[in-house]
User: What shape does this take?
Amino acid sequence: MRKKTRVARALSAVLTPEQYARTRHDTPYLYTLGSGEDALTFVGARHSNDPYDKLFSIIPEHFDSFKPDVVAVEGVQSMSGAAGTERFIAGLTRQEAITRGGESIFTIKHALEQGVPWFCPEPSDAALMRHLVLHFYDRETLVAWYVLRLLGQYHRRAENMPFVAYVAPFLSYLEQATSWSDVSFTYNQALETAAAVLSQEPNLYNADRAIEYTDPIPWSNRWEQQTVFNEITRTALAFRDRHIIKRISDELLRGQRVLVVYGAGHAVMQEPAYRLLLNAS
Assistant: This one.
């Protein structure tokens, strides 16, 4: 079967958010598919910045047992490029890598120490925003969504700085990445837009509520709380998962052993695609 056909069939098997809402699974969610060359092992994590989390023992164990040729990690984009990212991460201690960047930065640090190449299979923020605009989402609303999406990360890292200071470099990055000259990238405007969508000011200090604002999963007990922000995340999730699977499939189909460290939701939703791709039962 041709490569493009195999990948297209695999993409058709990805779980939808509605299907995932009916799924129950352990976290971390772990699986290995294939053997020898073109094999994959997936560490589906609960995002963590806690150095005592068992996740940070599981990841090195998978390096040792699986012996990957390449590692894929979630959400690592840097305006300084891969070389700048690697220099920064190499200078961190193990604990700093975890507290500042969670499992993604920890995994990259371990990969660098083991001499294993890594990559981030995510689309760029610019590509993601172009895709969302094509789905007729208003640009001001997208900036507000982008800010609210950072709340979960902010709370996990237990930052001492106020949220406005935490968000500032991300907004600057987004403004440069999109080149939207007709949109305000200010914190205050983003919160004003968010309040209009939510019909109330967003609660920036409740970690659980913060995650719900942009949760893509339509949980039955939260359905009435869903807004356009949740719809945007579902659209973004579908685009991201397709991009991630295509990139990882490229590595698998050229005979690479790939270790993937991503959120557990991605692990579960993408698993049927990789099983189909690798003909694993």
